[in-house]
Amino acid sequence: MTEREAEAGETGAPDWDPGRVPRRLELAIYGAATFSNSLGYMVMVAVPLLLVSLGLSPLMVGIVLGSRHLLVLFCSIHGGAMMDRLDTRRVMLIFAWVTVVLPLAYPLFPFVFALIVIQMAAGYCTSIGWIGAQALIGQTLRGSPVHTGRMDAVIRIGALTGPPLTGAAWDAAGPWAAFGVLSLWGVGLLVSCLALPGGGTGGAKTAVTWRDFLPRASDYGVALALLTLPLVATVILVALLRISSFSIQASFYVVWLDGQGYTGTMIGVLLGAYSLFGGGASLSVGALVKRFPAVWLMIVMVGITILSVTATPALGAYWALFIAISLNGAAYGLTQPLMIILMSRGSGAADQGKAVGLRTSANRLAATLIPPVMGAVAQFAGLDASFYIVGGAVFALLLLAALFAHKTGAARLN
Predict the structure, then answer these.
(1) Is the pTM of this model over 0.85?
(2) How many CB atoms lie within 10 A of CB 2?
(3) What tens digit of pLDDT does each residue of 128-142 get?
(4) Where do the structural domains in the chain lie, given as residue ranges?
(5) For position 279, what pLDDT does the model report?
(6) Dihedrals phi, psi of 112, to nearest 5 degrees
(7) Does residue 326 surpass a pLDDT of 50?
(8) Domain over 21-413 is classified CATH 1.20.1250.20
(9) Can you state the percent helix, strand and coil of the chain, rounding each to 5?
């Protein structure tokens, strides 16, 4: 066992006593996670509907949707490093203020170039809240499976209610109402960040200067060095493919449903079911990791999410779509806490923010590339075929990731 692995093991104590966690800290973490995470699901409803109403081509729709993840791709490690160095609460608060205002820019500037810029900024600000909540799980709760499962279940409340509210607001009053709901969600994120106890959630630096907001090469070097650990490398590989599956759903799933004649409210209900079943499944993660190898459980669940969304064009009927997305949500809900737990255990106490940033960067790489690629495939081969082609390729890559986990012995490290 390497020195880094030994240090990582010290942060992954699985038997945290729930009674020892301050209630204010626990609820504030769950609140920040809920509002930041569910904003992504609400964007899945509002932004595609806005782009369709503007009459953009499938390729341009894919480019605009993918741009939301571009800044997150390159700056997530930097965001996590800022939390390790400056204090997680402080960093989360700075970006939460912007999250309140930025959604209103979408209907105010309905032009392709402006929307790309807004998407990039909004995606990064939202991701900081989610990165911070995950980092706090490692920094203050030591990657506890109980609390990680609880957090993942609680975030489904926001993801369950947010998309139907967004879709209903669109149906009732158009884009201003829909994006107004997103702005209110930003207020919830801000209040949750304000409720976090000050100090003790990251670095101890008291003064913040403009230099602190500039990326540092050394932070990226430390984060990338984590990939030398088989467990971390396996989680990153599977995370890429998990988000590839999610990106198919986040981009052209809604476009496909809209083309089938489903209303914004009906689309919101489907995405709400996805979140509902995901929350229920995540509560079982604490018990499941005691019975099954966590790495293999993660891989199997990601396989189910990929196959569920790939089959979308073959389903057609609303009830079949509801069953498929519910199954998808349950499997996806299990994988999220599993990845948080494994990354927390695989990285040292001083690198929790960087580890989350590394996984987020991997997520955003897939989220940035998949929509334009799928848009291009849809433009030349048809929208239905794009689900089968892109989804099939992602599943084939998952099989290779499983082979890597087996060959490196990563599954034996958890």
Answers:
(1) no
(2) 9
(3) 888 888 777 766 666
(4) 21-413
(5) 63
(6) -55, -50
(7) yes
(8) yes
(9) 85, 0, 15
